[in-house]
Structures are given as C-alpha cells and as structure tokens.
Amino acid sequence: MNKDLEQEFTACIKEYERVIYKVCYLYTTKSASLNDLYQEAVLNIWRAFPKFRGECKISTWIYRITLNTCISFIRKEKNIPEIVSLTQEAEWLTEEEDSFREMLAELYRLINNLGQLDKSIILLYLEEKDYAEIGEITGLTVTNVATKLSRIKDKMRKMTHS
Amino acid sequence: MELDELKKSWEALDSRLKKSELMDENTLGKLISERTKQTRNSMNKMLLFGQVTLIIGFFAIIGLGYYLLTANHSNKEYCLWLFIWIMLCIGMVWDSLGYMYLRSIDIERMPLVTVIKKMTAYNRNFIIECFVAAFFFLSAFLVQAICIHLMTLNLVSILIFSVIWIVGCIAAIWIIKRMFYDRLKNIKRNLAELRELKQD
Predict the structure, then answer these.
(1) Closest partner residue to B22 among A88, A106, A125, by Cβ?
(2) What's this model's pTM, rounded to 2 decimal places?
(3) Which domain holds residue A63?
(4) Which site among A25, A159, B3, B189 is 20 to 30 Å from A6 CA-CA?
C-alpha cells in the first residue's frame, strides 16, 4: 500500500472510528473483547480499502465490513495477528458516573437479547440510517426492514416489561 | 426501555466517544505495519503448516490402509482399525471443507443476511463436529474396555477406570456448557430470524 493510500485510509478511520467502535461495543462477548473486535474490523477495512470502488457510500461499506467482521469473528484461523493495545480502550467507561454506565448496560442487555440480524437492524436504526441504507447493508428489502423494525420494537417492549 | 430511550443512550454514548481519541495515528500505523509483517510471515507459516498437516494425514491414511490390507488381524482388531481409518478420512475431508467454507465468506461484499446464514450453518456444523468427536472418543473408551476385559479385572482397576470415565464426562459437560451454550442459544435465535424472513 502506498503512502497516499495509507494517509487516505488513516483519515477514513479517523472519521469513522466512533462508528466502528460502537458496532464492536455491541458485539463484545466473553470470548470476543472490544479490543479484538475493533482491531479485527480496522484490519479488515484496511485489507479491503484498495479494492473499494465507490459503488456504495463509504459509510455503508464500513458498516457492512464492521458488522460482518463482528458476526463472523472466530478464532479458528491460525494467523490471528498480535493485538496491539489501544490508546484509550474503553477507559472512559470505567471512569464515568454510575447512571451512565447503568444506562449503557441496559442498552447492551436489551440489544444483546436479540438475534444477529435484529441486532444489526436496531443498531443501524439507532445510527439514524434510512430504510434503504439498512436494506443495502443487510441485504433486505425496504419492506422487510420496516416489518422487522416494527417486530423488534414489540420484542423490546416485551423484554422491558418482563 | 422504549426505542426513544435507547436512542438517547446511543446518542449519549456517541457524545462521550467524541471526547476521547480511540486510536491515535501512531497506534494505527503500528497496527498496519505489524499486520503487514505478520501477514508475510504467517502466509509462509500457514502454507507450511497446511502442507505438513496434509502430508501427515495423507501418510497416516496410506500407512494405516497398507497395515489394514497386509497385517494379520483378528476380526475384532480389523474392525477397530478400519473404523479408525474411515474416521481419519472423514475427519480430513470434513476439516478441509470447513476451512474452505470459512474462507468463502466474503465479508467485504456479502450482505449481512448471507453472512449470518453462513455463520449459523458453520457454528451448527462445528457443534455437530464436537458431538461426533465426543462420540468417537466414547466408542474408543468402550472398545478399550472390551479389549482389556474390564469386568474380569479386580475392583481397584474397575474403580480407576470408572473414575476416569466420570471425570471425563464431567469435563465434557462443563466444556459443552461453557463453550456451546451461548453458541446454541445464538444459533436458535438466528434460525428463528431466518425463518421469519422466509415467511415475510
């Protein structure tokens, strides 16, 4: 990868780092830490970056790679790269006030009770993506997205009441 | 918590993240250069590892096959070796197919639904693989018990054998609970979602 492309990539990551981070945050589990997921997503974007032809919006493309990375993150591959420690790995999470942490924990708990697809749809909805873009990322039709979202709302309502 | 409240939490998370630098340019640069180096090294290592595994597997199959055909065995022994030989062949083919399947998942282009379908199938197969492996070892233990004529041995030997069995079973259950329980729950949820999609 040449220097210009590397700079372009760095700028792109800088712009979308919060998006990548938030997606990874929701997919964090006992076996897949936030750090692992974040770095794996960044590395996958970097690997695919020279092949990006602009057929869709860069944000759509980044969401797709990050979500797919999180969904398919398994450690069966033998060439797992060494994990470099992040500058600020979720430091703020532990330092912040309790109410905020509780709010996040509740958000995490609710969303993590959903399946992979519902989780992705709700995440994109929270990111204020329109139905067409959600459809483009997930591979669903706009009608499907609308139906799914209304079902997710019902599910979440039930979860909250139970 | 309603969706509007979720949205508020999400926005709050976003604004907190805005204040902190998640990965500085140096770390990113380090990550990229490490990865480039590692990719180059691991490509060679992986090729070598893959080749060595294939060669060992291939020779094991040939060697065991030759042994099966030429040596003098009792019927019981012949069946045992044949069983191991067949399992070895199936295991090698299964593993290669699994690896190829995993490699075929193109996370850059495939929509989420396809990746979820493929990963659900892969996870399901992985669990089946583990159960088959457990069954294989169970059979091996049974065969061993028959071969050593367990019931003719003294009480201490029977006890030792039983303890090993029980500890093995407890360990297996613990591993299944720890490793597979979440996966199974996920598979169930994902399959329900995919079925829901078909209905729509």
Answers:
(1) A88
(2) 0.75
(3) 1-91
(4) A25
